[in-house]
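Renewal narrative, Specific Aim 1. Our central claim is that a sequence can be written position by position from structural information alone. The example that follows is taken directly from our test logs and has not been curated for this report. It begins with the structure tokens describing the chain, in the order in which they were read.
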């Protein structure tokens, strides 16, 4: 791309340290590239502060919204206005999302937050603030902020509506049309507010669900999940030391546990960033990992550290699935897949496991669908126990 544009390139392995410094200086001075243009990977942002970048152009939308924000953040560091542009085909993005939903192998997964941000379904600041700051109470761009492109039309229509409240020449004749326009506008505003409220409420519920599940993990890390879903006394033993090993239900649970263990971890079906490849839980929760950036979006392994909940996720999932029963399992899966825009039933076993391993934003953390499904099935067993 740099050759096609006739400008310098910058990436991690392009040159020596001195050569990189020279390339960086040439770019900053606009030497050899009219307007100071450079084609670069994210290596350009590591430890480099160039304050007067006015335009950042992305060749395709990053899969992770955090990456998009960090890359866009290279512009406007001097406090002046900058522009971030994504060059991509909506048709290509939609086709990739359809392929991903269909479980086609090789399709890298785009975060749900990225899809929402690009689609413009809700205020873009709502999505950004939730991902970057964990803020979940925003309903749109606020007073004193420059409205995003999603909120701008609403702000303009509101201003125009106020300006049209007068009774100047011809107001009487236009009354009917203005009334219809205002009614249509108010209706669209109500629909927009409802969508934003619904999205915000969904995220709030998702946050509660994730926190509840995190607490359950801590409880069942040293207890038997099989006895736990059956509300038995004496659950303070490991699953594999369960006195109920001779029971048919325990044997079914163990068989399913082994199947899921092999399918998800033996064959490494967890998507990138969906969790620890050893325990399957969010990297943010697992002691084996530590955040490598201030925003907590990327993680590196901690030398010598081990997962504190290794094996717990799969034990809970297997125990809850067998105890909840086929009907409850199928209903839960159907509802979740429908919410994802998928067919109620997967076309193959491979597609089932791909869906289990899908990366999602869950209560402000990056997790897998398997975590969320386990949480919901476990809740169903809790409800079943309360009903007796």
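The sequence written for that structure reads:
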């Amino acid at each position: 791309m740099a050759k096609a544009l006739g400008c310098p390139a910058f990436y991690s392995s392009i040159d020596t340290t001195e050569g990189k410094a020279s390339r960086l200086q040439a770019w900053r001075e606009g030497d050899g590239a009219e307007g100071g243009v450079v084609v670069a990977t994210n290596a350009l942002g590591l430890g480099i502060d160039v304050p007067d970048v006015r335009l950042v152009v992305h060749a395709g939308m990053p899969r992770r919204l955090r990456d998009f924000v960090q890359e866009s953040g290279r512009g406007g560091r001097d406090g002046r206005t900058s522009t971030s542009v994504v060059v991509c085909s909506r048709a290509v993005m939609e086709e990739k999302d359809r392929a991903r939903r269909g479980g086609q192998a090789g399709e890298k997964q785009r975060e749900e937050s990225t899809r929402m941000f690009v689609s413009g379904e809700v205020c873009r600041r709502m999505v950004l603030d939730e991902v970057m700051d964990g803020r979940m109470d925003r309903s749109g761009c606020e007073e004193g902020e420059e409205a995003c492109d999603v909120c701008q039309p609403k702000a303009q229509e509101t201003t125009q509506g106020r300006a049209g409240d007068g009774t100047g020449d011809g107001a009487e004749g236009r009354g009917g049309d203005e009334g219809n326009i205002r009614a249509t506008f108010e209706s669209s505003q109500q629909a927009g507010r409802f969508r934003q409220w619904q999205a915000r409420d969904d995220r709030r519920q998702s946050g509660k669900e994730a926190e509840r599940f995190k607490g359950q993990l801590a409880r069942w890390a040293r207890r038997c999940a099989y006895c736990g879903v059956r509300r038995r006394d004496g659950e303070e033993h490991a699953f594999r030391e369960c006195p109920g090993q001779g029971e048919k239900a325990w044997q079914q649970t163990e068989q399913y546990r082994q199947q899921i263990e092999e399918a998800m971890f033996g064959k490494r079906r967890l998507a990138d960033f969906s969790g620890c490849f050893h325990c399957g839980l969010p990297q943010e929760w697992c002691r084996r990992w530590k955040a490598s950036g201030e925003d907590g979006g990327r993680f590196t392994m901690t030398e010598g550290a081990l997962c504190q909940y290794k094996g717990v996720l799969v034990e809970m999932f297997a125990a809850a699935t067998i105890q909840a029963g086929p009907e409850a399992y199928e209903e839960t899966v159907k509802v979740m897949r429908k919410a994802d825009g998928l067919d109620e039933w997967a076309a193959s076993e491979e597609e089932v496991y791909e869906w289990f391993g899908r990366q999602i934003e869950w209560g402000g953390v990056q997790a897998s669908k398997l975590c969320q499904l386990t949480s919901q099935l476990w809740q169903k067993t809790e409800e079943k126990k309360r009903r007796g």
